Amino acid sequence: MRCLLIVFLVSICCISVKAQRTQSFDDNWLFWRGAAQGAEDTLFKDTDWRKVSLPHDWSIEDLPGTQSPFSKGALSQVSGGFTTGGTGWYRKHFNVPVGDKGKRIVIQFDGVYMNAQLWINGKKLGKHPYGYTSFWYDITPYVRYDRENILTVKVRNEGENSRWYAGSGIYRHVWMNVLEPVHIAQWGTFITTPAVNKQGATVDVTTRIKNNTDAAVTATLLTRLVDVKGKVIAEDKGQQLISAGKDSALQRSLTVKSPLLWEIASPVLYTAVSYVYVDNVLKDSVRTLFGIRTITADAQNGFQLNGKTIKLKGGCVHHDNGPLGAKAYDRAEERKVELLKASGYNAIRCSHNPPSPAFLDACDRLGMLVIDEAFDIWNDGKNPEDYHLYFEEWWQRDIESMLYRDRNHPSIVMWSTGNEIPHREKPEVAKVARMLRDHIRSIDTTRFITCGVNGIAPDKDAFLSTLDIAGYNYARTQYVKDHERVPERVMMATESFAIEAADYWMEVVDHPWVIGDFVWTAFDYIGEASIGWLGYPQQQGFYPWNLAYCGDIDVCGWKRPQSYYRDALWMPEQLSLFVKPPVPSFDTNMHKIDWSQWEWYDARDSWNWEGHEGKLLDVTAYTSYEEAELFLNGQSLGRRKAGRVNKFMATWQVPYVPGKLSVVGYNGKKKSKEVVLQTAGNAAAIKLSADRPQINADGQDLSYVTITLTDANGNISPDADQLLQFSINGPGTIVGVGNADPMSTESCQQLQRKAWRGKCLVIVKAGKQAGDITLTANAAGLSTTTIKIIATAK
Fold this sequence. Notes:
Number of strands: 45
Largest sheet: 8 strands, parallel, barrel
Structural class: mainly beta
Number of helices: 9
């Protein structure tokens, strides 16, 4: 009984320390878009500044005096999706209780794009140029306990500095850590599993403890490993003498009996709880999630997770969240991973920068392998004002931020040093590649190192030799000849064309040294506008295009035709049906160059082609079935073979007649369910569907509501484009609207949006009060429709 009581008391104490240790710092910021000379001064008047909560991105907001974030004259042009950056200022007024005097006060930023400069109470803290790495400052020397504190952040997203939409501002979370003078250092826990088998796993835990007092202390570290049920399954206690003003690392080894492994299908997570005591008084407590798993890779067995060969079904993903811009709400990050997992993906390449912590947390929970990528640029720039201006001074700090922050995530299996680095054939560039590799290995040797390399040829061998796994961008024709030349090289497509998906995937299937394929891209994104249609060379005349239009899944989270095709490549018993429009969906680029191949076929899941009666239309089934049979109004139009020989497609030419077009798949005598395209009538009703009808009343949680315009029979009206207007009641707000139209310049924040191809999206954010949130949608000539979302207190 006494033992149980001690455990209980320690748990309560841990909760108390944890509650004080890390606090959200997202609320009650003031924001000013534009110049604000002198705003770092504590006497500066900010009464006319706008109140915002984080995450925040001003580039997705309507430009002043307009109802659109897009402008033909935006400096970002095609690369940034015709959005505007500039300068923005943030100020936060806050109090620190007198009871915290003597503790360390640390402010942590998960990500600010870009060139952040920071002041506390008028005192300059420093700067952080890179927009994608996390950073922190100990503000203790400047904190005022008897009156208000003011934290000021200036953000400059200026000039041509990105090849995609980056967003602007404090677009990820901010935290305040309140620490005892003796505490676990920032990102100070490192967990590895060097030995794993069915009987047991060795779990090594290195914990760095910092002593901010003016005297040496003997710190006691108690480390407990806890399983998913909350049961303590292993523990260890050690002591360390730490000099005044210094830190010291304690390395401990624990054993977990009969471990449950972290796998794609069952991503089991354990928790390491680290308690720091001085003179038997608990000073700090940190909980760290981790997974027990092994990874190997070689040219004979490919990539293996826990001893089993896995082909990486991968996709490249930029960091924006469509209608939300770059705002990294936890739920937006989680939903992205959920949707990709549901579409067969088991791996993501974070292109071309470290993602948010929430994104990696979601990958851990859901079972998604990750390539965590550092940079798109080293010393040689791709834009005049991009990261090459800062690389020489900042690369080491930014690499360390990525590794120290992310190294406990079991989902991460590779560190990537970069993407399509210029002049990679030159010895001096290969030298930089070795420098990055060596520094990564000085921090973490438990994962592979890769890089996305284009222009694959023997002159890149010195560069590629710095990598454990060679990333081949658009180079599938090199796989066999390079294997014959360098037989031990492990390869993967770090980027590939969707239009060649079958060819790329069959290379993965056929060759063990080719471990996976990462398509460009898995999720559509803002910026690189129209590369999935108009392609290259790019020019201002592409406006109003603002989306890349090359993702398997569009910016609203809906599957595009190529996603259904990938289903047929990756999963059994898949069948879908698409029609080539009689008139191209968009104007084409008559000057598109040959190597620009990021488009998919012009394909619609529609059988509404009024005015084209009798005209032959190309109809294609994407299917993993051996054969498919097409029917028009109940009459068979014949069977067609699919399979590898026909690249998992079956095609027909069909004279357009309104009615029912359907297809059935066959594996021998086994018959699939019917897939139907039905000619629909005009929009007669509004249908609302929430991905989550219940959300947390935490001021951050989201529900994604799909609005569908249907005919009188409930069929989607595929060409409906009515303007929908929205209102909301209850403890929630609308934080984003979208429709996935790559040429729409409508506001992403106004309470209205046109439907595109019969659909649009509303993103609802919970407030901090529990209750019912009612979203109402209406359109001219249609009945008003509502949906209820319940916000519940945790």
